[in-house]
Amino acid sequence: MSSSSNTYRITIVGAGIIGLTTACTLLKEYATNENLQLTIISEKFTPETTGDISAGYWEPYGLKTIDERILRWAGYTYNIFLSEFFSIKASCGGIMKVTSYRLYGFNGQNKDNNINNTEKPKFSELVRHFRLLDQHELETFDHLKPTSGFVMSSIVVEVSKYLPQLLRFLSQDNRVKFIKKKIHSLIELKDKADVIINCTGLASRYLVGDQTVRPARGQVIRVYAPWIKSAYSFDTDEGFGYVVPQSDRVVLGGTFQLNDWNTKVDENDTRKILRMCAKALPALEQIHSGRVDVGLRPYRDDGVRLEHEKTIDGINVVHCYGHSGAGVTVSWGCAKDVVDIVKTLLPPNSKRQDNLPEHEQLWRLVPNFKYIILRAKI
Ligand SMILES: Cc1cc2nc3c(=O)[nH]c(=O)nc-3n(C[C@H](O)[C@H](O)[C@H](O)COP(=O)(O)OP(=O)(O)OC[C@H]3O[C@@H](n4cnc5c(N)ncnc54)[C@H](O)[C@@H]3O)c2cc1C
Ligand SMILES: O=C(O)C(=O)CO
């Protein structure tokens, strides 16, 4: 399997949130493998990845089904992000805990028929402080007149601040190499890697010929609204809207347009997003400008593809793509499963360094990381 020097040559294609989270998890699991050579090849790096545009909000969204895998990945990711160690030490990595309100039904029409006043979303058991809103609380959103809703503690990851932290963490390890390049076929890597990890998102449509991966176009607006400190998502008569606070801007969304490849700003979408969000939070009617971003979520008909494939050319590939609107939400859970598969192909030569919780191990392995965080914080 590996080259004669028993070197473990692993190549990750894609440096979005999925690729970089996977790389960090690999370093944790192969902490004492001096024989590891990890190459990260990507056409684009932050801030040009899909995640950089995203609202970075924790909630499984934009998936045809929220199955056991999604719940397991999302729950694991939630705990990593909310662990004391991670949120304190990584706070300047753009990670925030937010109170989040989800409001169903608009003007009393409960369009989302499978949600009523008593039903909870599948992920309610995964999060802290989840509670259904009572009638009095629902009435405080009288401009929307929701029929039901809930409140919980969620997480916001400002990906354009977070990915640079992961890159710094990775670049502290001399086993890691970065290559900024577009590859046209995995065969190009055949004799250079023992295992390839495909984290190319929507581009997997071309790179591995998966025609079930399609764009789900998302447009968002970043506005200056410092009075908004909670997250809101809601139904309106024009669709699903959301308001997600980040460190110095608030992300207003959004659109979810399947098979729409347009990456240019659509002014009608901008006006619609502002109208929807102002229905939920009328003070937003004062907002007339912001930075508009467009991204193409990697939607996949059968959901996330996370599996090992031995190609006809004998290449070991572990695929991890198709996260649609939930790539941030499931990132650490997916990375763990990907690396568990890699470990069956290239067994790491040691167990964890001590019995620290998973997230502490990850960051404790590279003291500089904490230093980087503290330095960045200063
Ligand atoms: C508007 C919007 C809002 C969103 N909000 C949220 C949210 O609130 N919460 C959430 O969880 N998710 C959200 N998402 C979804 C989330 O952004 C994606 O699920 C996630 O970014 C996918 O990550 P990825 O690493 O798989 O793909 P990408 O970020 O697209 O990264 C793929 C990488 O592969 C590289 N690549 C592709 N092809 C090649 C090639 N041939 N050779 C070399 N490199 C290649 C690219 O350059 C890129 O670096 C949102 C998305 C959008 C568009
Ligand atoms: O727009 C998206 O993809 C989201 O996940 C919003 O939270």
From TrEMBL:
Q: Which GO terms describe its molecular function?
A: D-amino-acid oxidase activity; FAD binding
Query: For FAD, which residues are the binding ones?
Result: T200
Amino-acid positions noted as binding D-dopa in the UniProt annotation, renumbered to this chain: Y242, R297, G325
Provide a GO biological process annotation: D-amino acid catabolic process
Q: Where in the cell is it found?
A: Peroxisome matrix
Output the Pfam families linked to this UniProt entry: DAO
Query: Where is this protein primarily located?
Result: other
rRNA-binding keyword on record: no
Domain annotation FAD dependent oxidoreductase: ranges: 9-340
Output the Gene Ontology cellular-component terms.
peroxisomal matrix
Q: Any idea which UniProt keywords this protein has?
A: FAD, Flavoprotein, Oxidoreductase
Domain of life per record: Eukaryota
Q: Which cofactor(s) does the record list?
A: FAD
Family indicated by similarity: Belongs to the DAMOX/DASOX family.
* PANTHER family the UniProt entry points to: D-AMINO ACID OXIDASE, D-ASPARTATE OXIDASE
Q: What is this protein called?
A: FAD dependent oxidoreductase domain-containing protein
